[in-house]
């Protein structure tokens, strides 16, 4: 099969012929139809993830069809059209038993713990626990755009963040995760303040329902507190930089909730005096369990959100290395880039 491979962290990846994967006894092999290019892939390529062994194939936001199954797989058959959370759970640990597969103690992650979906084929673990059946109404490219970023935003906004109608939600960073958070918060009836440095990203956030936008700068938090009459009820850092994390926390009102979505290469200087004095809550959000996908898909179906607007670029596998290395620029472009295998 053809796949994007890198042999050194930070070295330019190459598209190469590599051996086809085989399914584990409880796993499947999926023929990838589309896969998103996510900033998490960039973190892995840059060496920020200790679980990656070289050489490596990145990619974890995918849609495709099952082409081979392990002997212990019961729920899936060749030809099934599927996606998968970026956290593949074991199904047997304490966290899995309590429904928290997104923090499974024995988790694997395509594109991190093993080779991922920047390839024609990808092997996925514990298929009966992790695979999600795709509805016929959802095309492969849009399904790939719902991967890590949209699923993480769904959990961050509605589960961890507990956004409610009429509450102010500040979204720091309007890339794939941030724009997903805007769509989900608006669908939940919240009032959204979108923050970014790029005017085109803010324009897209406005089209997706943000009530107001703020161009990021030294006074970001103060401007949000002014717009919202004291601060956001919920604020999300979808970028993953120390300054955006701090700005998110500083933009909260008393008893506000900060949810960290963006991965960070270094820990930020948390303003703990505000956390204590204003009784703020700081939370993380690590993907979405497979059993939550039906509710996420139901929200999409009953809302008016335009998922097609999330996809800014459709590229081929040969263009994926350049798309990955271009993320050295943290500003980048608006929307999600998706690799389509048939381009």
UniProtKB/TrEMBL annotation:
GO MF terms held by the record: alcohol dehydrogenase (NAD+) activity; zinc ion binding
Superkingdom: Bacteria
Keywords: Metal-binding, Oxidoreductase, Zinc
Name of the protein in its database record: Alcohol dehydrogenase
Pfam families attached to this UniProt entry: ADH_N, ADH_zinc_N
InterPro entries: ADH-like_C, ADH-like_N, ADH_Zn_CS, ER, GroES-like_sf, NAD(P)-bd_dom_sf, Zn_alcohol_dh
Cofactor(s) needed for function: Zn(2+)
Species for this entry: Amycolatopsis endophytica
Record family assignment: Belongs to the zinc-containing alcohol dehydrogenase family.
EC number: 1.1.1.1
Residue stretches making up the Enoyl reductase (ER) domain: 10-339
């Amino acid at each position: 099969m053809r796949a994007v491979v890198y042999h050194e962290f930070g070295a330019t990846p190459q598209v190469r012929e590599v051996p086809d994967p085989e399914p584990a006894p409880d796993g499947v092999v999926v023929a990838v139809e589309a896969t998103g290019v996510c900033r998490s892939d960039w973190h892995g390529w840059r060496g920020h993830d200790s679980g990656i062994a070289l050489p490596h194939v990145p990619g974890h936001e995918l849609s495709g069809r099952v082409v081979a199954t392990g002997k212990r797989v019961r729920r899936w058959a060749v030809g099934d059209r599927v996606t998968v959370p970026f956290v593949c759970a074991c199904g047997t640990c304490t966290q899995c038993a309590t429904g928290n597969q997104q923090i499974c103690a024995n988790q694997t992650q395509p594109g991190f713990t093993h080779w991922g979906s920047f390839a024609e084929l990808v092997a996925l673990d514990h298929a009966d626990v992790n695979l999600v059946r795709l509805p016929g109404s959802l095309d492969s490219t849009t399904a790939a755009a719902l991967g890590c970023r949209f699923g993480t935003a769904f959990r961050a906004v509605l589960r961890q963040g507990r956004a409610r109608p009429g509450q102010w939600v500040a979204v720091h960073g309007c890339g794939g995760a941030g724009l997903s958070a805007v769509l989900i918060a608006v669908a939940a009836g919240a009032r959204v303040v979108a923050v970014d440095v790029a005017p085109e990203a803010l324009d897209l956030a406005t089209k997706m329902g943000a009530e107001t936008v703020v161009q990021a700068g030294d006074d970001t938090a103060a401007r949000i507190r002014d717009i919202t009459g004291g601060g956001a009820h919920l604020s999300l850092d979808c970028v993953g930089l120390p300054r955006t994390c701090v700005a998110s926390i500083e933009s909260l009102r008393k008893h506000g909730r900060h949810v960290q979505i963006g991965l960070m290469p270094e820990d930020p200087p948390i303003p703990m005096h505000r956390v204590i004095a204003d009784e703020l809550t700081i939370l993380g959000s690590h993907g979405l369990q497979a059993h939550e996908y039906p509710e996420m898909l139901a929200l999409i179906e009953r809302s008016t959100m335009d998922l097609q607007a999330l996809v800014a670029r459709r590229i081929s596998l040969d263009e994926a290395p350049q798309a990955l290395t271009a993320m050295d620029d943290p500003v980048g472009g608006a929307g999600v880039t998706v690799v389509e295998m048939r381009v």
